[in-house]
Structure formats: C-alpha cells, structure tokens
Design a protein that fits this description.
The chain has two domains: 312 residues, ADP-ribosylation/Crystallin J1 (ADP-ribosylglycohydrolase fold), CATH 1.10.4080.10; 145 residues, Galactose-binding domain-like (Jelly Rolls, Sandwich). The chain has 18 helices and 13 strands. A five-stranded antiparallel beta sheet has the order 4-7-12-9-10. A hairpin with a 2-residue loop joins strand 5 and strand 6. The protein is elongated.
C-alpha cells in the first residue's frame, strides 16, 4: 500500500484505528408497529423487479468480467445497454441459485443440508472456484458443511455464495433470520467465513429492500446479518465511512478500498489467487463494489449498474446484485421500460424447469411458506385482497469464522445410500474412449491434466487409456457392477503403467472394501508397466461393484496408464 493511501486511511479511520466517528447501525425497520404489512401483489411486483435487476445487471456487465482487475474500467469502455440484454437465460450467475430454489420447491424449508448437497452435486452445469470445489467434494462423498470448509475447499472465501444468495432475500421479505438460515443451508455447500457472510449480507439487503428505499439503511440492515468482528463487516463499514466523507467521489472511495482490501495482504489471507495477485475474487472486495454501486448510484438504475461494473473484478456479478437490490425497492411496474419491454417470458433458464413466469410463481409460493414458517400470516381484507403480515425480527448472525484460522471440520461424509443418489459425474467425460477400451466400465472424477483419453500407442504398448485424478485429494475412478459366476474363481487382471516423470497409487475396491493398494511407479514396474491380479473368489455368485482408483500421490505427473482390464473366471 502506498504512503498516500496510508495517510488517507489513517485520517478517516479505515485502518481500524478509530480515527473516524461513525453512526450506530441504523434500524432498518419501517414505522413503529411490530409487524410489516405488505400486499401480496406488491410483494410480487417487487420480487419480479429483483429478478429483472439481476438479469439486467449481469447482462450489461458480462463483457467486462475480470477484464479490469485492480483498475477502474474507463468510462468510454463501458458497453452500452441494449434492452434484449435482459434475456439472460444461460447465465450461471442466475441458474445456479435456481438449483436452490428448486430444492426448496421440492422439499420445503425443512430440507436437510445433506439433501441440498445431493441436489447441488447432481447439477449438470460447469462451475468454477468455490462452487466447483464444493461440488467436487460433494461428489467425492465429503458431505456438507465440510464441502465448503477451508480444509477441503481452497476457495472458501471466494464470491460464489454471494453471487447466488439473491434468491434468499427475494423469498424472505423483511425476514433476515430466514436469509441467515438459508445461507447456513446452501451457502455452506461451497463457502465458509467471509465467503458465507457475503451471501448472508446480500440476502439481508434484499430482505430489507422490500420495506426500505434509503440505501444506507439497506446496507446497514445487511450488515446486521453477519458477525461484526469479520473482515467482511469491516470492509462494508469502511465503504460507508468513505461514502460519508466523499459522498460525491466514488473513485476516491474505490482507491481507498483498493488500497486496503486489494493491496494489503492481511486482507487477502485466503485469497485463491494469492495475497499479491491482481485477480481478486474474494467476497468482501466484490461486496464493496456492490455497495458502491448502490450508494453512489443514488437510486438511478443506470448509474448503479455502471458504477458497480466500472469498479472491476467480478464486474457482471456485482452489478447483478446491486441492480437486483435497487430494482426490488422500485418494483416491476415502475421500472424504466428499457429494462423490461424486451423480456422473453418463454425463455427457459438453462439447467432449470423455470421460465420467468414460473420462477416468479415459485418464488411467491416460497415466500408464502417463509412467512408462515416465521410466525407471520397471509390474510385478506374485506375485498379479498391478500396481504402478508410479517413479524419484525432482529437478525441473529452466526458466530465468527475465519478461513485462515478455521474451526475443526466436522468430518461429515455421505453414507453409501446417499452416495447412490449422487448420479452426476464430474471431470472430463471419457465415456466414449472407455467404451472402446473396456466396455461396461464407467469413469468419474477424471481431471483434465495430462490430456486424458485413449492413445493408439504409449510407452511401447498399443491401445492405452490415460486417466488423471480430478484434484490432489480426489481420485479418478473406473467402476463396474457385474455378477460373478458361482462356484468358480474369478480374477481381476490389470495391466497398468505410469508417466516416466511420476507415479500414482492403484486402489482396487469391491463393494467399497479395499482389496489392493499399490504404488505404480519406477520401483514397481518394468519399462513403465506391470501386471496386477486381484482374487475375487469370495465374491463368487454375487453381484459386486468393482472400483479402480487412480489415486494421487503428491500432485506430480500422476496420470494412470491402463493397458488392459479383464476379468477371468475358471
């Protein structure tokens, strides 16, 4: 951090040294009654606008995503808005959170975190960062909350649940504790600490936006949903302080936040790009950019999206959340026509059963359930018009966690019965190559390193299948279920080899029971190859699931070479 940044931070108290007086957290409640009252039609009007805001923000900002890292996007490089950009039906920043909406639709708010994990594990879309690591963990049997724990997820502080948390606030108007609870159920599939708090903060702002228009109060309401001792809370509080001192200069605020949360390694201790990388997908700095759009946009949809985008880094997700929150305060009917006239009501969100009208209908139904579960009521006036009565509640944040100093993992694992419900495969699809090499076998969790697939010739042998572990803690698995003949001895015969620069561990299992664990490397092979035989006699007359694991040994050239897989019976 440069000397000028240090001087300014010290002067206004952003370095945590108390140099700036700040107001107490504002009460986001409206009026003095003990319950909110909102017509169901008005709720739907605002909720629809929240979804539209997400679609518009991500569509407008998409061309700039991570093209401006640690720098402000120049004003003349901001792409123009075009009304058809609202039709974002193939955006992961939207359809991933709809997986969680679908889980709630199917199972209700009492769904277990383990079932939520199974549904997420079975999703078919590509993922990155915390989402990918979390889903890979789930598919490998690491059950939540460990799928998002820093021990197993090196991206746990990344932005992922923050991107996907909009749904939580949109179905929980005025109910911050519901938002927090949904984060505990869905956010922990992939995040922890600040990564989780980012989603609870954003969801809390949405929940407040149904009853509040003052953006400072909306931000304060979101802050009430997360631990005050967290770096995420500190980051957003710093933005509020900057806004107070520089209400007309968002660039100055950006520079101060960049100096502390981008350039100071103490605030990037679990950054997946390293503390010195310009690429910063941490939740807190991107959350700061959401808030900067909301504050400095001053209620203008265009300015809100433009500022959140120009801040850079994840510059499609951030304007998406900022616009979603702002649009919720405005309502669909009062939105500028340019954001809704081109909406295609028949467009289907990728990997979901939802078009826009269906999404709105399901969201309304979930909100009705949330209100009832939270002690509220759905009532009707003398004309039959329905309205929500929602008890006001003070948020109860979860205890402080930090990714760089985490609490012990719970060591939660899926049972065999639960694993049977996880049918999606992760990693590179080798099904066609494996079908030619060893018909009847399946492959899962094959990583893309070292160009896996079928080779005509490799290390002196013809017709060789190459696999690679998905990650340094996740093995690639070849599997097959078959019935072994009764009264006969069956033997699994393998010809396996290794890359000349490394080795790997071969593990053979039958119905989950390890039968063999052997390192395949220079000391156990001749000219790079060895033959392995595994006795299956005691499984005679049974249907057995065989698994061949290409297990990593240190993450160094761990491709497995398969020269032959046969089962002989005599």
């Amino acid at each position: 951090m440069g000397r000028s940044h240090l001087l300014i931070l010290t002067a206004i108290g952003l370095a945590g040294l108390g140099g700036c007086r700040s107001s107490q957290v504002a009460d986001a409640r409206v009026g003095s009654s003990r319950a909110y009252r909102m017509g169901v039609d008005e709720y739907v009007n605002k909720m629809k606008a929240g979804w539209i805001g997400q679609m518009a923000g991500v569509g407008w900002g998409a061309p700039t995503e991570f093209k401006y890292k640690g720098v402000i996007l120049p004003e003349d490089q901001m792409p123009p808005w075009e009304p058809q950009l609202v039709n974002q039906f193939r955006q992961d920043d939207l359809y991933v959170e709809m997986t969680f909406v679908r889980t709630l639709e199917l199972y209700g708010f009492d769904v277990s975190i383990r079932q939520a994990g199974i549904d997420f594990a079975n999703s078919g879309y590509p993922l990155w960062h915390a989402n990918q690591a979390g889903r890979d963990n789930l598919r490998a049997g690491i059950a939540p909350p460990d799928s998002g724990h820093p021990r197993y997820n090196q991206h746990a502080d990344d932005i992922d649940y923050q991107i996907e948390s909009d749904f939580a606030g949109l179905i929980a108007p005025g109910m911050p504790d519901v938002v927090i609870a949904l984060g505990e159920k869905f956010g922990r599939l992939m995040n922890y600490g600040d990564g989780l708090y980012g989603g609870q903060f954003v969801g809390g702002m949405y929940a407040a936006a149904f009853f509040e228009k003052d953006m400072v109060k909306i931000v304060e309401a979101g802050l009430q949903c997360i631990p005050k001792d967290s770096q995420y809370y500190q980051c957003i509080r710093d933005v509020l302080k900057c806004y107070k001192h520089y209400p007309d200069d968002w660039v100055k605020t950006w520079e101060l936040i960049d100096g502390k949360y981008q350039l100071n390694p103490q605030y990037r201790r679990f950054s997946c790009s390293g503390p010195d990388g310009d690429f910063n997908i941490d939740a807190k700095i991107n959350g700061a950019y959401i808030v900067m759009g909301l504050l400095y946009g001053r209620g203008d949809p265009n300015e809100t999206i433009i500022i959140a985008t120009r801040c850079g880094q994840d510059s499609d997700c951030n304007p998406s959340s900022a616009a979603g929150i702002l649009f919720t305060t405005i309502g669909f009917e009062k939105l500028p026509e340019e954001f809704k006239t081109a909406l295609d009501p028949t467009g289907k969100f990728s990997h979901t059963p939802y078009d826009f009208p269906t999404l709105v209908s399901v969201s309304e139904q979930l909100a009705r359930e949330a209100v009832a579960n939270g002690g509220g009521k759905v009532m009707a006036d003398s004309e039959g018009k329905e309205y929500f009565v929602i008890p006001r509640s003070k948020p109860h944040p979860v205890p402080l966690e930090q990714c760089w100093d985490p609490k012990p993992a719970s060591e939660s694992r899926y049972t065999e019965e639960e694993m049977a419900q996880i049918t999606a495969e992760s990693g590179k699809d080798l099904s066609k190559d494996l079908g030619k090499f060893a018909p009847g076998w399946k492959v899962s969790r094959c990583g893309a390193d070292m160009n896996p697939g079928l080779r005509q010739e490799l290390r002196g042998r013809e017709n060789v299948l190459v696999t690679h572990p998905l990650r340094e803690d996740v093995a690639c698995v070849l599997s097959r279920s078959l019935r072994l003949p009764a009264g006969r001895k069956s033997t699994l015969k393998l010809v396996v080899g290794h890359d000349a620069r490394g080795d790997w561990d071969l593990i053979v299992k039958a119905d989950g029971e390890p039968l063999l664990h052997k390192t395949i490397g220079p000391e156990t092979t001749s000219l790079g190859w060895t033959e392995v035989a595994v006795d299956l006699l005691r499984f005679a007359g049974r249907t057995v699931k065989l698994e061949l694991l290409n297990e990593p040994t240190g993450w160094h050239y761990e491709a497995a070479y398969w020269g032959g897989i046969t089962i002989a019976s005599q």
